[in-house]
Structures are given as structure tokens and as C-alpha cells.
Amino acid sequence: MDILWAPWREKYIKQCGFKKDGCIFCQILKAKQDAKHYIFLRSAHSFAVLNIYPFSGGHFLVIPNRHVGDISALTADERADIMDLLADTKDLMDRAYRPEAFNVGMNLGSAAGAGIPEHLHIHVVPRWKGDVNFMPAIFGTKVIPVALDKVYKRLKDALKGGH
Known about the structure:
Layout (H helix, E strand, L loop, with lengths): L7 H9 L7 H8 L2 H4 L1 E4 L3 E5 L9 E5 L11 H22 L3 E5 L16 E6 L6 H6 L8 H12 L4
Antiparallel strand pairs: 1-2, 2-3, 3-5, 4-5
């Protein structure tokens, strides 16, 4: 796939300031700067964050607080909590953006495509009819038409009862 130049990402990458070593999910959780890192919902054992490299607008991750790489390593309470947060965030996205469908999934291990295999995370990708258009089919380039800041604000507004 070709790369679409996106200079707006530079600001986010520079402002993170995290070391290259260590788990990015653990680092943003510990930072407690939710708006800066797009964490839009927390629960007792997990949190939801916008994916800074989205497949489509509104793509987010549901992640356990504890650093584990496999669903089998979660306690029963953690599994229940992450699934409850998954349902809550999906409902929130429904209220905020009204997508027609969702792709929900996990890549367990690097051979399965996990970019961060050491810390389990669930991808939630809102979908709309026609959201895959000629750009990826002909040019091999995906266009994301919405900024992370706007998605974050809309989700936070929906949490307060707006949208």
C-alpha cells in the first residue's frame, strides 16, 4: 500500500515524548493525560482509546489495564470488565456517529498481525456502506476523513448526553 503524506501526525508523535522501549499502552495509562492521548473512557480494569493509526474514522481500542498479551491471562473479573467496556464504547460510538456496522477483533501474537503483541487490545472499527471506495481499490491508499481531536470531542460529548 502506498503512503499518504500526513504531516498533521508529526505534532502527535512529538508531543507523546515516550521512550521507544516499554509498552505504549502502559505509558499512556500511567500518564493520566486522557485528552492528550485520546483515552475517552476508563473502567475498573480496562480503558478505551482512539487508535492513532486508524483503519477508518472512529477506530478505537479497548485495552486491559494490566500488561498481558493473551486473553487467557486475564482474570474472570478482567474479562468481564473488558467485555462490558467493549459494549459501552460500541454503544457510545453508536450515539456519537451512528455507524451502520462494526468490525471487532483481536490479533493475538505477532504472527496474527498484532502490532503490540505483548499487551492485549481489542480493535473496534466503525463501518458505513461505501466507506471502502476507489482510493484503496485503485491507488492502494486509505483516506481517513476525520481528525482524532474531533472524534474524541464527539465521543466525550456523547458521554455527557449530547449527539
